[in-house]
Design a protein that fits this description.
heterodimer; A: 162 residues; mainly alpha; 2 domains; 0% strand; globular; B: 436 residues; alpha+beta; Immunoglobulin-like; 4 domains; 7-stranded mixed beta sheet; 8 helices; 31% strand; elongated
Chain lengths: 162, 436
C-alpha cells in the first residue's frame, strides 16, 4: 500500500504544473502506477523496476516543459527511493517468509534512514549543480567525464560481483 | 554458496544509468539528483559485497520412531564471513512436520511449514539449530536435500545452496492393543499362551478318564477316584502356540482413496502382529502386491520390527509376470497356519489368492476394508446401474467366501478393529467348518 500510494503521488507531482494539453506525460504516469499496482498484486519483482523507470520517464518529460530547476527534485528522489525500497520489502516478505519478530520495525527504521540519506544526497547534487561557475567547454567535458566514470565504475562492479 | 543478483540490483543499476545519462543529455541536474541515491547505494553495496562460505552438517538423532513421536534433526551451520542470516528449507516427506526449532542455547527459531528462518550463526564456528520433526504418519521417510538461502545486508545479492542429504528414518504405526485375538483351529507343538484343543500335558483342565498303564500318577484325581472303584486321572489341554500369517493386500495401491485403505490395513496388521507376538505365536507376513514380499513366521520383538519394515517398504512396481500366492515358499505359509487377509477385495488377483489358500486347506480369515466410501456417488442412471452391479459383484464374492467357510467380515473403520475380530470369532463359532 505504501509503495502504491507513493507511486500515485510520484505520478501526480510532475503533471501538477503542466497544462491539460500535455496528455502524453499523464499517460506515462498512469502507466507507471498501473505497473506498480500490477507488481504488488501479482507479486512480480521485475515489474517494480519497469514501474520506476516509467515514473522517472514521466518526470523527465515534465522537466522539458519546466524552464527553471525543480527545487523539490531531492524530495522526489527520496520518495522514489522509498517507493522502490518499500515495494521490494513487501514483495520479499510475501515471497520469502515473514521475518523474525521485530524485523518490520527494523525495516521501517532502515527505510527512514535511507530515505533521509537520499534527500541529502539529491540535495547535494542539486546544490552542486546550482553553483554559478563560468560554463565553458572544460566544465562540460569534466561533467561528461565524471558521469562516464560513475557509469563505468558501476558497470565494472556489476560485472565483477554479479 | 551461489550468488545471484536480486531484482533490486538491476533496478538500481537501470535507474542510475537512465538518470545520469538522461540528466547529461537533457542538461537537467534534477535527473542526476534522482539517480544519485540509487547510484551511491549500488556502488557501496557492490564494493563491500563478497562471497559467502557455509559449513554445514546435518544429522538425525535416531532413525526409528512411532507415530506421534518427535525426531531431532540437528543442523550445524557456520558462515564465513559471519553475521549472515540463514534460512533453511528442509525437503520433508509427507506426514512429517517441523514442530519446533531451537538454537543450541535454547532460543526459538521461527518455523514456517518446512522452513526454518532467521537462523543467524555466530560465524565461522558452527552453531546448532535443532529441528523437532513431528512424525504424523507411518512410513519409511527420506530427507533428500536441505536448501540454504541468505541475502546480503544491502539486498543486492541472494545466496543459495542446495545440500544433498541422505537421511532416512522409519516411523512405525501406532497400534491399538487388542484384548482378544483370533484363535486358530489348530495349534503348533511349540509352547505358548494358547490352550490347545488337543489333550495332553498342560495346566488347563480338559476331561477325566480311567487311568491306563503308563499314565503319570501325579495326574490322578483323588476326589473322583475315592468315590468309585476305578482310578481316574485328569486330562489337560497343553499350552501351545500357533502360526499366524498376515496377508496384506497392497495390489489396489494406484487407486483413489487407497492411501486411507492401505493405512487401515497396515495399522490393523501392525496391531495383530504385536498382539500375536505377545501371545508367543509365530507371526509371518505376506505383502500381497507388486512385488510380492513375504516374511517367514517367527517370534519375538525383532520379528515385529521386521514385519513393520516390510509393510513400509517402497511403493509398488508393475511386474510383467505375476505368479500370485503360489510364489510364496512353503516355509512362509506353514501348514496349520491361521491366515488373516486384510484386503479391500478390489483386485481379482487377491480374490483368487484367498480362494487358492482356502482350497489348500488353510484356516483363513478375510477382513474386508470397505472401498465404497472412496467411490464417487453415481450422478446418472448408467452410473447408478454400474454401481449397483459392482456392489452385487462384491457381495457375490463375499458370499462365495462364506460358502467356502472363509470367515469374511467387513471392518467399519469408525469402529475399533477389535470389533471386527469379535465378528470373526462369532462367525467361526457359528459356521461349521467346511472340509475341502
Amino acid at each position: 500500500m505504501v509503495a502504491v500510494g507513493l507511486a500515485v503521488g510520484l505520478s501526480s507531482y510532475p503533471v501538477a504544473d503542466l497544462d491539460a494539453t500535455n496528455q502524453l506525460v499523464r499517460l506515462i504516469g498512469v502507466a507507471g502506477v498501473v505497473l506498480m499496482v500490477a507488481a504488488m498484486v501479482i507479486g512480480v519483482p521485475w515489474l517494480v523496476g519497469w514501474a520506476t523507470v516509467t515514473l522517472v520517464t514521466e518526470y523527465a518529460f515534465s522537466l522539458l516543459a519546466r524552464p527553471s530547476v525543480d527545487v523539490w527534485a531531492s524530495l522526489y528522489a527520496a520518495a522514489l527511493f522509498l517507493m522502490v525500497e518499500s515495494a521490494y520489502a513487501t514483495l520479499e516478505r510475501r515471497a520469502r517468509i515473514a521475518g523474525p519478530s521485530g524485523e518490520v520495525g527494523r525495516e521501517m527504521s532502515r527505510l527512514l534512514v535511507v530515505g533521509s540519506a537520499a534527500v541529502a544526497v539529491a540535495a547535494l547534487v542539486l546544490a552542486l549543480a546550482s553553483i554559478p561557475v563560468a560554463y565553458g567547454l572544460l566544465v562540460q567535458v569534466a561533467g561528461v567525464g565524471a558521469a562516464a566514470a560513475v557509469l563505468t565504475t558501476l558497470i565494472l562492479l556489476v560485472r565483477q560481483r554479479a | 554458496m551461489i550468488r545471484t543478483a536480486t531484482p533490486r540490483l538491476r533496478t538500481f543499476a537501470v535507474l542510475a544509468v537512465v538518470g545520469l545519462v538522461g540528466g547529461l543529455a537533457a542538461g537537467r541536474p534534477e535527473l542526476a539528483a534522482v539517480a544519485a541515491p540509487f547510484a551511491i547505494l549500488l556502488g557501496v553495496g557492490l564494493a563491500v559485497s563478497h562471497d559467502l562460505d557455509v559449513t554445514i552438517d546435518v544429522r538425525l538423532d535416531r532413525d526409528r520412531a512411532i507415530e506421534g513421536e518427535k525426531i531431532l534433526l540437528v543442523i550445524s551451520a557456520g558462515t564465513n564471513p559471519p553475521g549472515f542470516r540463514l534460512d533453511f528449507e528442509v525437503d520433508l516427506p509427507g506426514g512429517v512436520l517441523i514442530s519446533e526449532a531451537v538454537t543450541e542455547g535454547g532460543q526459538a527459531v521461527e518455523v514456517l511449514e518446512r522452513m526454518v528462518v532467521a537462523f543467524k550463526p555466530g560465524g565461522a564456528v558452527p552453531n546448532l539449530v535443532k529441528l523437532q520433526l513431528l512424525c504424523k504418519r507411518w512410513g519409511a521417510h527420506h530427507i533428500g536435500f536441505l536448501r540454504i538461502r541468505s541475502r546480503d545486508v544491502w539486498g543486492l545479492f541472494n545466496y543459495y545452496l542446495e545440500v544433498p542429504l541422505d537421511l532416512s528414518f522409519k516411523v512405525f504405526p501406532e497400534t491399538a492393543a487388542l484384548r482378544r485375538l483370533l484363535r486358530p483351529i489348530e495349534t503348533r507343538v511349540g509352547f505358548g499362551d494358547l490352550v490347545s484343543r488337543q489333550k495332553g500335558e498342560g495346566l488347563e483342565f480338559a476331561d477325566l478318564r480311567p487311568m491306563v498303564i503308563g499314565d503319570d500318577p501325579r495326574q490322578i484325581n483323588w476326589r473322583v477316584t475315592a468315590r468309585g472303584r476305578e482310578v481316574w486321572v485328569n486330562d489337560r489341554h497343553p499350552e501351545r502356540n500357533s502360526d499366524v500369517v498376515l496377508l496384506v493386500d497392497t495390489l489396489s495401491e494406484p487407486r483413489r482413496g487407497v492411501e486411507v485403505m492401505l493405512d487401515l490395513a497396515v495399522r490393523a496388521a501392525a496391531g495383530l502382529a504385536a498382539g500375536h507376538l505377545r501371545r508367543n505365536d509365530r507371526v509371518g507376513l505376506i505383502s500381497f502386491g507388486e512385488p510380492l514380499r513375504w516374511l517367514r513366521p517367527a517370534m519375538g520383538d525383532v520379528q515385529r520390527y521386521r514385519i513393520l519394515d516390510t509393510l513400509m517398504e517402497g511403493r509398488s512396481r508393475r511386474q510383467m509376470y505375476w505368479r500370485g500366492v503360489s510364489a510364496v515358499p512353503r516355509r512362509a505359509l506353514p501348514a496349520k497356519a491361521l491366515i488373516v487377509g486384510l484386503s479391500p477385495l478390489l483386485d481379482e488377483r487377491a480374490v483368487v489368492a484367498f480362494a487358492d489358500l482356502r482350497g489348500r486347506g488353510f484356516d483363513l480369515v478375510v477382513v474386508e476394508i470397505p472401498a465404497e466410501p472412496f467411490v464417487d456417488e453415481p450422478t446418472t442412471l448408467e452410473e447408478d446401474l454400474a454401481r449397483r452391479i459392482w456392489e452385487l459383484q462384491r457381495a457375490a464374492t463375499r458370499n462365495r467366501f462364506v460358502r467356502h467357510g472363509i470367515a469374511t467380515v467387513r471392518w467399519d473403520p469408525t469402529e475399533p478393529f477389535q470389533r471386527a475380530l469379535a465378528e470373526v470369532e462369532a462367525f467361526r463359532r457359528n459356521v461349521t467348518r467346511v472340509l475341502v
